């Protein structure tokens, strides 16, 4: 459905997108992942014919973005980072305008407006001015306009940014429900989003492609291991972390132990285990048998977050704590 | 063509949904009304004085009034035109809706034409207000309607030309105020640059005078349709819209 070859966008001073190549099959939801400024939006803008590429080619829905932009534009729906809404228009009127822009007319237009406002849950605000809608509604109207002409390809630039958690979930569910009918590319810097919705992920950093794979494979690829967080306390108010490390290291299936936080009385370790080894019970037993207290033991699933940081090379600067907190919540 | 109509309708709606159209209409109604009233007063005074001295009033009064009125309208237009065109592209750029237009299967030219036609239509509505005043003359006398029509054609052409320039300037910035101020400056400059021709007959001054929009208005207000002047305005429109198209294209290469 989408074939991108050596796509490059250079500006006077910098290269925003540097020889990116990937392929997306029909009906897939693909996460386009990267830190801010990685070139996600630029790439999407090239796919939507908003920006012409400096070099390379992109074929979207069977047409080249440079050769036949009109044909491409007929077959894509695009939701930019801020939904392109005219604040003085009413929702229904706006959908009708966009629908006509995309070439719909008459009964078909009417039927599509009804369908998308139902699908995106904006039917109740059809008579309201867009400027007066809440952010969640605006985002949904943005989605509605993107799918109004039933495009083959749907390109969504950070569709959940700036929404509250409830709205984020609603939007994600909506996007998920759209898969199958449409091939969807969605850019985000939120990793859990990709884990939740996408089948395939394309990671870029500083304009370069760093990884493209299925979400499952990527998770597996990252050492394929489980991370366990262990907090150990000494009985008499003192604890030698080195001793704990040495003891835990003897548990079979343990790959690596990292001291994460050290206090006089207790310390936290991050234990990385081998693939297919379930070692939490052994760890607990080892600690208790050695005469320490086990304060906490929980799994910190290896998240895309870590893969992401690893691949984009920002591990040192990355917020390690966040990873831990996130892992705890799941 | 359907797309031009679509954009035109959208622009007209946004003029009339926001207060801008009504403010402009009110302003123009007041200003044109005042022009007309003060001109009428002046000529009533003249004719009264002439009668008291036992002379015949030498001038064709309705014609004098319309001529002066049509001399004033372009000056008002200088202030009005930036207000009409400043939002055309600047606002779309600011809110990001330009991305919707440029990623839809619609040509840049259709967008530009639709927007410029909407601005011209808006300007026509304003001109129409002055026509209401002029209509009063027909109740009390029998002015020749042909020169009046020609004058209106001239006003429309001049307005459309300046609107094309305003449309172009609006593509250059995201800021409506900047677009408006720059358009006002450009229109004023192109309006007054003809003045050098009045006291200077060197070549450069004559060229400058020729380029000015004001010098080409004279034939129209006299009631004569001079193709040379009409072609000048049409050329200006084409140049303005062409520059708009180039600028819109460069938007993609730069942004």
Which fold name is given in CATH as the topology of the largest domain in chain A?
A: Rossmann fold
Intertermini distance of chain B: 28 Å
Element order, helices and strands of chain B?
A: HHHHHHHHHHHH
The amount of beta strand of chain A, in percent, is 25-35%
Q: Ranges of chain A with pLDDT <50 over ≥5 residues? A: 315-330
CATH superfamily of the largest domain in chain A: P-loop containing nucleotide triphosphate hydrolases
Please outline the major beta sheet of chain A: 6 strands, mixed
Beta-strand portion of chain B reads under 5%
How many independent structural domains of chain B?
1
Which two chains share the most extensive interface? A-B, 27 and 23 residues
Multimerization state: heterodimer
Provide the structure class of chain A.
Answer: alpha/beta
Q: Roughly what percent helix of chain A?
A: 25-40%
Shape-level CATH architecture of the largest domain in chain A: 3-Layer(aba) Sandwich
Assign the structural class of chain B, choosing from mainly alpha, mainly beta, alpha/beta, alpha+beta, or little secondary structure.
mainly alpha
């Amino acid at each position: 459905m989408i074939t991108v070859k050596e796509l490059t966008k250079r500006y006077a001073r910098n290269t925003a997108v540097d020889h990116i190549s990937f392929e997306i099959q029909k009906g897939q939801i693909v996460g386009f992942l990267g830190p801010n400024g990685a070139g996600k939006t630029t790439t999407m803008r090239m796919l939507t014919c908003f920006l012409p590429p400096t070099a390379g080619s992109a074929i979207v829905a069977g047409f080249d973005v440079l050769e036949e932009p009109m044909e491409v534009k007929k077959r894509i729906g695009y939701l930019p980072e801020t939904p392109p809404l005219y604040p003085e228009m009413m929702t229904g009127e706006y959908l009708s305008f966009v629908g006509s822009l995309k070439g719909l007319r008459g009964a078909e237009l009417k039927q599509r407006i009804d369908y998308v406002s139902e699908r995106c849950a904006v039917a109740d605000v059809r008579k309201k001015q867009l400027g007066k809608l809440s952010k969640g509604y605006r985002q949904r109207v943005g989605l509605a306009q993107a799918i109004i002409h039933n495009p083959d390809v749907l390109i969504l630039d950070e569709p959940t940014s700036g929404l509250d958690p409830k709205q984020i979930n609603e939007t994600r569910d909506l996007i998920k429900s759209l898969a199958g009918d449409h091939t969807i590319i969605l850019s985000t810097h939120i990793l859990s989003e990709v884990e939740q919705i996408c089948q395939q992920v394309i990671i870029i950093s500083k304009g370069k492609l760093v990884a493209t794979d299925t979400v499952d494979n990527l998770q597996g690829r990252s050492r394929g291991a489980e991370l366990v967080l262990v907090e150990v306390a000494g009985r008499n108010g003192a604890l030698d972390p080195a001793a704990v490390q040495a003891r835990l290291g003897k548990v079979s299936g343990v790959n690596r132990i990292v001291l994460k936080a050290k206090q006089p009385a207790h310390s936290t370790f991050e234990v990385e285990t081998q693939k297919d080894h379930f070692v939490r019970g052994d760890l607990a037993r080892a600690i208790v048998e050695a005469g320490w207290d086990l304060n906490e033991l929980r799994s910190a699933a290896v998240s895309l977050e870590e893969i992401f940081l690893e691949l984009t090379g920002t591990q040192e600067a990355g917020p390690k704590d966040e990873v831990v907190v996130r892992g705890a919540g799941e | 063509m359907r797309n031009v109509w679509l954009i035109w309708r959208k622009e007209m709606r946004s003029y009339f949904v926001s207060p801008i159209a009504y403010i402009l209409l009110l302003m123009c109604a007041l200003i044109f009304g005042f022009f007309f009233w003060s001109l009428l007063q002046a000529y009533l005074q003249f004719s009264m004085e002439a009668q008291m001295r036992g002379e015949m009033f030498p001038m064709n009064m309705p014609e004098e009034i319309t001529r002066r009125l049509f001399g004033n309208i372009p000056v008002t237009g200088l202030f009005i035109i930036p207000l009409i065109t400043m939002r055309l592209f600047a606002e779309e750029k600011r809110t990001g809706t330009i991305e919707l237009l440029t990623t839809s299967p619609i040509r840049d030219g259709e967008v530009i034409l639709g927007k410029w036609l909407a601005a011209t239509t808006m300007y026509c509505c304003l001109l129409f207000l002055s026509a209401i005043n002029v209509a009063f003359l027909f109740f009390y006398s029998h002015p020749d309607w042909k020169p009046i029509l020609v004058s209106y054609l001239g006003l429309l052409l001049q307005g459309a030309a300046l609107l094309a320039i305003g449309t172009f300037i609006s593509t250059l910035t995201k800021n409506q105020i900047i677009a408006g101020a720059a358009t006002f400056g450009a229109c004023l400059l192109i309006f007054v640059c003809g003045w050098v021709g009045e006291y200077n007959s060197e070549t450069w001054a004559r060229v400058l005078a020729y380029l000015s929009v004001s010098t080409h208005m004279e034939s129209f207000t006299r009631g004569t349709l001079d193709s040379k002047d009409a072609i000048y305005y049409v050329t200006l429109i084409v140049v303005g819209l062409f520059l708009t198209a180039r600028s819109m294209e460069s938007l993609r290469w730069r942004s």
